């Protein structure tokens, strides 16, 4: 019996870094965003993925400017895709 191919369960949205930078403070608790003032920079591995059930998952990866091994990953799951696109798309 042949193996079935695994279906893709999510898709990364093609968003510019500028848009991700503007969306991060809206999706993440404002208290966690103080690191941006401390020099942490959003990395290209950040993104927003659409899941098959229609919800979105956002992943914001920040790295300290002087310590390349110091990074912080913030994930927000089960975002209503229609709401996000309607307000900021």
Description:
With 89 residues, this protein is an alpha+beta fold. 26% of the residues lie in helices and 33% in strands. The chain has helices at residues 17-27, 34-37, 81-88; strands at 10-12, 41-42, 47-51, 55-63, 71-80. Strands 1, 2, 3, 4 and 5 form a five-stranded antiparallel beta sheet that branches. The longest helix is centred in the N-terminal third of the chain and has 11 residues, at 17-27. The N and C termini lie far apart (45 Å). The mean pLDDT is 83.
In short:
With 89 residues, this protein is an alpha+beta fold. The protein is 26% helix and 33% strand. The protein has one domain.
Short key terms for the protein model shown above:
26% helix; five-stranded antiparallel beta sheet; alpha+beta; 89 residues
**In angstroms, what is the radius of gyration?**
15 Å
Helix content: 25-40%
**How many H/I helices?**
3
- State the total count of DSSP E strands: 5
Task: Write down the overall mean pLDDT.
Answer: 83
**SSE succession:** EHHEEEEH
Secondary-structure-based class equals alpha+beta
Low-confidence stretches: none
User: Given the C-alpha coordinates, what overall shape results?
Assistant: globular
N-end to C-end Cα span: 45 Å
- Total count of domains: 1
Tell me the strand percentage band. Answer: 25-35%
